[in-house]
C-alpha cells in the first residue's frame, strides 16, 4: 500500500490531475493512482466529489480533498519537505494571484482563441497575447515562476507549458510562438525537467485525442 | 497614520472590499480606507491593479495585494491573532473549497437566477436552490461556517448573508427564503454580529443602487 494511504483519482489527459501527481512526486510521496473513465465515472468518484464530479480527487488517510489548487496547498502543508509555496506571506499571495490568473483569465481566453468561431476571435487572440506578455514579464530573469526551482505557479502553469501546445497542434493554430521567447525558453526547461517529464501525457496520443474532440465539437456546433 | 502602513482601496457596496475590512477588524489592524469611484477609477487603483483594475487593493508597507480571497489569506498569515483560517491543513483545504464554491458556483448561479431573462431561468433557480441546500448541510449543527466563530468561509459568504437579500429586494424576487431555515438563522446571527454590522453597507441606499442598476441593464438588453 502507498505511504500513509494516499490515493489519487485522475484522468491521464487532465492537466489538473497531472498537477497533483507532480506535487506528490516533488514531495516524494508514494501514492496509488486510479484512472477514471470520464465517460463512465466510478461510484467512488461520484461519492468523493458529489458536487463537481470531477478529477482530481486526493484521498489521504480517508480524508477527501478536491480542486487541484486546493489539493496542491494541502500537499504542501502536509508534507513539508521540498516546499512548493514560498515561505513569505507576501510571496505566497503573489503565487496565489498568478495561479488564479492562469486558471481564470489566461486559459479560458486561450481556449476561446483556439476553439472560438469567427466572431470576435481576433479580439480574443489579442487578449490572449496580452496575457502571455504579462506572464513573460513575471518570468523575466528567472528560471521558473518559483525562482530557481519549480513552485506552485509552475505546477499550475503546466497548462501553458504543455496543454497549450497540444491544443495548438490539434487545432492547427498558433498563438504561443517564438514571439514569446521567455515563455518558450521556460517551456523547454519545463518539459525536459526530470520529474515533470514523467507527469506529461504522451504527445501523439494526446494530440489525436484533442483533434477528435475538436472535430466533434465543430460538427455539433 | 494607520498601523504598519495599511491602506485599503475599496468601494462601499463591494462585498469583496467589505470582506477585507471585516478581516482587518477581526484582527484589530488599523487601516486607512480610500473609497474608489468605479466610474472614474483613480490613477492609484490602475497602477496598483493594472491587470484586473478592480477593488479591493490592500497596500501593506508598500506591498500590493489584490483579489479578496488572496488578501484574506495574506492578512491571516501576517497578523496571527484571531485566526480566520483553521489551523489543520485538512480543515484549511475544506475552507478553501467552500469559499471557492461560494464565489465560483453559488453566486454566479444566484445572480443569473435573479437577473436572467425567461430562458432557462427555472433551471437556474433550481440549481441555485440545490446549492443552497448543500450549504445548509455544511452549516448544520454549527453557529458559523467557522464553527463557534466567524472564519474564512463566513467572511467570503457575506455575499450570501447580505448581498443576496439586497439583490432579492431590488429585483423583487425571492430564492433564499425561510425554506432554508439553517441559512436564515445563520444570516440573522451574521448581520447582527458586532464587528460584521460595521462592515455592511446601509440597506436602503444599497437596494436603491441595485434597483437602478438592474433597471438600467434591463433597458439596455
Automatic annotation (TrEMBL), chains A, B:
<dbReference type="InterPro" id="IPR045074">
    <property type="entry name" value="GST_C_Tau"/>
</dbReference>
<dbReference type="InterPro" id="IPR004046">
    <property type="entry name" value="GST_C"/>
</dbReference>
<dbReference type="GO" id="GO:0006749">
    <property type="term" value="P:glutathione metabolic process"/>
</dbReference>
<feature type="domain" description="GST C-terminal">
    <location>
        <begin position="88"/>
        <end position="214"/>
    </location>
</feature>
<protein>
    <recommendedName>
        <fullName>glutathione transferase</fullName>
        <ecNumber>2.5.1.18</ecNumber>
    </recommendedName>
</protein>
<dbReference type="InterPro" id="IPR045073">
    <property type="entry name" value="Omega/Tau-like"/>
</dbReference>
<dbReference type="GO" id="GO:0005737">
    <property type="term" value="C:cytoplasm"/>
</dbReference>
<dbReference type="GO" id="GO:0004364">
    <property type="term" value="F:glutathione transferase activity"/>
</dbReference>
<dbReference type="InterPro" id="IPR036282">
    <property type="entry name" value="Glutathione-S-Trfase_C_sf"/>
</dbReference>
<dbReference type="InterPro" id="IPR010987">
    <property type="entry name" value="Glutathione-S-Trfase_C-like"/>
</dbReference>
<feature type="domain" description="GST N-terminal">
    <location>
        <begin position="4"/>
        <end position="83"/>
    </location>
</feature>
<dbReference type="InterPro" id="IPR040079">
    <property type="entry name" value="Glutathione_S-Trfase"/>
</dbReference>
<comment type="similarity">
    <text>Belongs to the GST superfamily.</text>
</comment>
<dbReference type="InterPro" id="IPR004045">
    <property type="entry name" value="Glutathione_S-Trfase_N"/>
</dbReference>
<keyword id="KW-0808">Transferase</keyword>
<dbReference type="Pfam" id="PF00043">
    <property type="entry name" value="GST_C"/>
</dbReference>
<dbReference type="InterPro" id="IPR036249">
    <property type="entry name" value="Thioredoxin-like_sf"/>
</dbReference>
<dbReference type="Pfam" id="PF02798">
    <property type="entry name" value="GST_N"/>
</dbReference>
